[in-house]
Amino acid sequence: MKKLKNTILVIFGITGDLSKRKLLPALYNLERAGLLPEGFRIVGVSRKGTEPRDIIRMLKQSEAGKQADCPDICEKLEKILSIVDMKLDEGDTYAGLSRELSRIEAEAGRPLNRLFYLAIPASLFPKVTERLAEADLNMHENGICESRYLIEKPFGADLASAKKLISDLNERFGEERIFRIDHYLAKETVQNILSFRFSNPLFNGAWNNRHISHIMVTASESIGIEGRTAFYEGMGAMRDLVQSHLLQLLALATMEKPKTMEAAEIHREKEKILAAIRPPEPERMKEETVRAQYRTYRKETGIADSLTETYAAVRLSIDTPEWKGVPMFIRTGKALKEKVTEITVVFTEGGAESLTSARADAAGAEIKRNYLTLRIQPNEGIAVDLDIKKPGLDEATQAVQLDFCYRDAPGFEQIDAYARVLYDGMRGDRTLFATGDEVLACWRITEPVLRAWDSPDFPLHFYDNGSAGPEAADELIQKTGIAWFTDSHQVCTPPKPSFR
Ligand SMILES: NC(=O)c1ccc[n+]([C@@H]2O[C@H](COP(=O)([O-])OP(=O)(O)OC[C@H]3O[C@@H](n4cnc5c(N)ncnc54)[C@H](OP(=O)(O)O)[C@@H]3O)[C@@H](O)[C@H]2O)c1
User: In the chain, which residues have pLDDT < 70?
Assistant: First the structure.
């Protein structure tokens, strides 16, 4: 990777959970890999009278920090970190931040790029961005001193609020300076989806409804909401994961090949496919969507009548000639049996048409299928399930798997997603960030589902903690004559230790 231009990274919310678990470890990793530019500086914003040494202590106490064993790097990070004490909702305290940025630039002897990371509650965005847009903080001259803004989700709570947020920000800074973080997109395994699809004619030529019958996207977590009631209640699985990460994954799995791999071309194709994804028709919402809650959620949150879904499943379609008739199933949930994120593309004799004929002839001949699984996490890799002749005199076939597992890739060193986010923010590469149009397209897909779920007679199912999810989600997919795949297969499972 190339070296970066000198930058001041300003982290609003440096004492928060995101900073502790992700941003500080990411900075540690970038410094360890020698990827931070020579005169790089960090300015943390807090209202707690925090000192740089408190922040470094926080890093050392984090899960990643406990594994880090390099006092030199922590010492270096402490030296390049300064803290500005300010209350974000009080306009006059921004002068202190402006002074600190000027002081650092005076020390460097020239203007520096500024990267503002908003790791703060979304309710503070309007105030903070309004103040940041003022001249003394919002210095921007292409190639000389560029200011960019890294924004965390949620990008609105519905289509209307997302539209407002996007237009307010664009008015202040312009879309090209806004970097909306979807850290899933920065995962190595997700970046590989396009390379894998478009570099392999074996799959690329068959990537359509003539060969593919359906696609399944699964993101299950084994943990529950872990005490984050204030964040999760009212948010739910649909807004938290489907609206952002999972529709982005589906878009990467189904978009057309971009003309080039430049950011603008990739976003153009992604926006096109997202605009073509359709939610179920209003009258089919009960058959084609499922919302559910894990059994202990209400007790855990103390909200006895909560309707917040911790599980969501939905059947979508794509209105293009390539994907006509191919159902796209997305499901996600918390407190499930295992933690898995993956996309499974199902190649079937007869492609999409096989689904209708399979239902018509339920007792008919067995339909041949190959499952291609792109495993995002854990046990990252790609696996193809095939049938081969069982060795021996028998004519029977048996299932086998061809796989590529990242853990076996020589020299493979996984760049953590947040390190990638910070790195790309510093170099101004927007490829792995969500555009405003992508965010709005995702809301257009999810909002009709959320509206249907608001209806008082819409069912909320319950599932046992540690189970594979609600039966209703199995029934949703079984109506098409198929079943979820993840529950019965393994990808890149680490080998068991052998005792010789
Ligand atoms: N945590 C995650 O894994 C995660 C994942 C994706 C997105 N996000 C998003 O990232 C953002 C931050 O999340 P978080 O989990 O880190 O939240 P958090 O733990 O509640 O931290 C929020 C930070 O905001 C600061 N803050 C709050 N009110 C302030 C005020 N009036 N003036 C100055 N500072 C204020 C706090 O700083 P002081 O108390 O030091 O002043 C604190 O450091 C949120 O928008 C969240 O939705 C978080």
Answer: 1-3, 68-69, 358-365, 411-414, 486-488, 496-500
| The pLDDT value given to residue 208 | 97
Q: Calculate how far, in angstroms, residue 118's C-alpha sits from the geometric centre of ligand 1.
A: 8
Q: How far apart are CA 403 and CA 8, in angstroms?
A: 43
Active-site annotation holder among 245, 267, 461, 489: 245
Q: Which two tokens stand for residue 369?
A: 């299928």
Q: What is the pLDDT of residue 126?
A: 86
Annotation marks residue 245 as catalytic: yes
Question: How confident is the model over 88-140, as pLDDT tens digits?
Answer: 888 778 999 999 999 999 999 989 999 999 999 888 888 899 999 887 888 88
Question: 237 and 312 in contact (C-beta within 8 Å)?
Answer: yes
Q: Is 121 in the pocket of ligand 1 (CB under 6 A)?
A: yes
Neighbours of 220 (CB within 10 A): 21
Q: What is the pLDDT of residue 237?
A: 98
- Contact between 120 and 16 under an 8 Å Cβ cutoff? The reply is yes
Ligand 1 atom closest to the Cα of residue 47 is 41
The finding on whether 240 has its CB within 6 A of some atom of ligand 1 is no
Q: Encode pLDDT of 188-212 as tens digits.
A: 889 999 999 999 999 989 999 999 9
- Of all atoms in ligand 1, which is nearest to the CA of residue 19? 16
Domain at 185-478, CATH class? alpha beta
Instruction: Please tell me the distance between residue 47's alpha carbon and the centre of ligand 1 in angstroms.
Output: 12
CATH architecture group of domain 7-152? 3-Layer(aba) Sandwich (3.40)
Output the pLDDT for position 330.
98
Kind of pairing between the strands at 311-318 and 289-294: antiparallel
Does 359 sit in the ligand 1 pocket, CB within 6 Å?
Answer: no
Q: Is the CB of 228 under 6 A from ligand 1?
A: no
CA of 87 to the centre of ligand 1 (A): 13
- Can you give the pTM of this predicted structure? 0.93
N- to C-terminal Cα separation, the chain: 42
Q: Could you tell me the residue ranges of all domains in the chain?
A: 7-152, 185-478
Amino acid identity of residue 435, one-letter, is: T
